[in-house]
Amino acid sequence: MHILHFHQHFTTPDGSGGTRSYEMARRLIERGHEVTLVCGSYRQGHTGVNGPYQRGRRRGIVEGIGIIEFDLSYSNYDGFAKRTWTFVRFALRSIGLALTQSYDVLFATSTPLTAGVPGIFARWLRGKPFVFEVRDLWPELPREMGVITNPLVLRLMDWLEWITYHSATACIGLSPGIVQGIVRRGIPADRVTLVPNGCDLDFFTPARLQTRPTGVAAGDLVAIFMGAHGRANGLDAVLDAAAELLRRQRHDIKLLFVGDGALKPALAARAESEGLTNCIFLNPVPKRELTALMSGVDVGLMILANVPAFYYGTSPNKFFDYIASGLPVLNNYPGWLADLIRHNECGLVVPPGDAAAFADALEALADRRDDLAEMGQNARILAEREFDRRRLADRFVDWIEMAVIPREAPRRANT
User: Fold this and answer.
1) Where residue 238 sits, what CATH number does that domain have?
2) Residues 158 and 295 placed together within one structural domain of the fold
3) Is 0.90 topped by the overall pTM?
4) DSSP calls for 155-181
5) Residue 327: beta bridge partners?
6) What are 153-179's pLDDT values in tens digits?
7) C-alpha distances in angstroms, 359 versus 64, 255, 269, 350, 352?
8) pLDDT in tens, 122-158
9) Are 234 and 156 part of one and the same domain?
């Protein structure tokens, strides 16, 4: 069958964003399906399509995936109004494709929530099966973060969430809390499945190299944070711990920030003004180059702002890259990932907002290298046992096929 796939922030491994859509599209193709993926232009992404835009879009084939890329630039540095307008424009242009293209099923993935708009039109105006993948619960997250406070906007988002879920033939949630959130909106549990982010076990390996990032001594403990540097990430907590470590004269622990985002300049400026020489900021790294970087560090930092909606309602890519690489994970917020870390003894969990506890955990990891190695081994075992991307991708494809086949069966039986 032909899947028309909408993901505004799509990237291949040549970009520095998450590659879930790329990996799932490749698995669909391996299972005999055709995929056309519709996306925008993301600052940290790389679609693989080159050449000029014609009438606001360009097309190409990348590793068997048909790509339609809209000339709609998006960056984490954009303000709220600009980002919202980009989301709306992507949704409006996507409606045209949903109503005119030839396909068997429409699949859309958030964020943003507006990515599901073409699916609503496809379902009710063309009778097409629509599968919606939910990566974050909206508007719960922006409401709890205080990013959106206008009651009218929140009500419109509530309505859009409800109509999107109820228009979908089936839904996919990336965390247990997301699945529960979808069901709470009145969707039958048998129409929702859990397919979390996965570990690319062949791509990331637990091998450790002797090479270290610039500014790091051979015996230092290096803890890495990868990803967006935005309000949701709460990275001031890491700088607070860095200041506490320097007060304790622990110059042998380095904190590495890899990525970009609206708050990165302010974070770097704070580190410089406070003399936090144990903090190192690097530019985003394409996923294809991450293996070498990850093999030269010791701990993965799983950091988010202390927002209850995050506890069970997110499935961050970085966690799965860490454990695939055999890195112990230091987590600073409660929830399902914290529970996984504790249960599998693959890292440490500290309370949110406690710089002393954060520093204590880093010192413990630096001083007990045997425990560090054992936690890393446990992390890789967890990755292999529960989060192998290949198995999760098969579950993903099975779910899409099951959502479509029952609708197609009567038509096929009559031909």
Assistant:
1) 3.40.50.2000
2) no
3) yes
4) HHHHHHHHHHHHH-SEEEESSHHHHHH
5) none
6) 889 999 999 999 999 999 999 999 999
7) 47, 11, 21, 10, 12
8) 999 999 999 999 998 887 877 888 878 888 888 999 9
9) no
